Amino acid sequence: MKAILLDVDGTLINSVPLILKSVKLTINHFGFRVSNQKLRELSQLHSRDIALWLIDNKKNNFDLEKFIDYRRKTFLSLLKKDGHKWFVDAKPFLKKASEKCKIGIVTGSRHIFLKEVFDFEIKKNISFIITSDDVKHKKPDIEPLELILKKLGVKRNEVVFIGDSTQDALMCKRAKVGFVAKTTGISTIKQLEKFEPIFVAKNFKQIELFLCL
Question: How far is CA 153 from CA 52, 133, 148, 172, in A?
Answer without folding.
Answer: 37, 21, 8, 18
